[in-house]
Structures are given as structure tokens and as C-alpha cells.
Amino acid sequence: MEEKQTRVAVISIIVENPDAVLQINEILHTASNSIIGRMGLPYRQKNISIISVVVDAEQDVISNISGRLGKLSGVTVKTAYSKK
What we know:
By secondary structure, the chain is an alpha+beta fold. It has a single domain, classed as ACT-like. Chain A, domain 2 (Alpha-Beta Plaits, 2-Layer Sandwich), CATH 3.30.70.1150. The chain is built from 2 helices and 4 strands. The model has no long low-confidence stretch (mean pLDDT 95).
């Protein structure tokens, strides 16, 4: 049986729409077995939140998480991958 290759990535999320937070949490909960850590910062001066999520998962899993998050209204997502 072939072992699947995983990569470490950081998914950066900027939330400009507070109504999207519940959906973000639901998406992240479905990926909880791939999440290494998560940090969220409210930036009250700009009325936004910044969330960083570190994952270790297969490429298609990371892309799926990022894609689902990026489809939410008022949410911007960028993903940075490790080279290994």
C-alpha cells in the first residue's frame, strides 16, 4: 500500500464579513484532523479578523479547504506551502 504524500501549509484568512465566521468554523471543523494549529486575531481598528491555520495534509485536501473558504462572501484566503 502506497503512503500518501502530505505537505505542510499555512492558510491565511482575512474576514471582512463577521457573518461568515460560523461557516469558516464549520469548514475548519471538518478538516480538524489535518490542522496542526490555529491562531485568530481580531483587528478592531479595521473591523476585520485575521486567522492563520497550519495544516499537514494531502495537496487536494488543502486545496479543498482553501477553495471552500475562498468562496465565502467577505473572506479572502491565501495559502503558502512548504517545499517538502
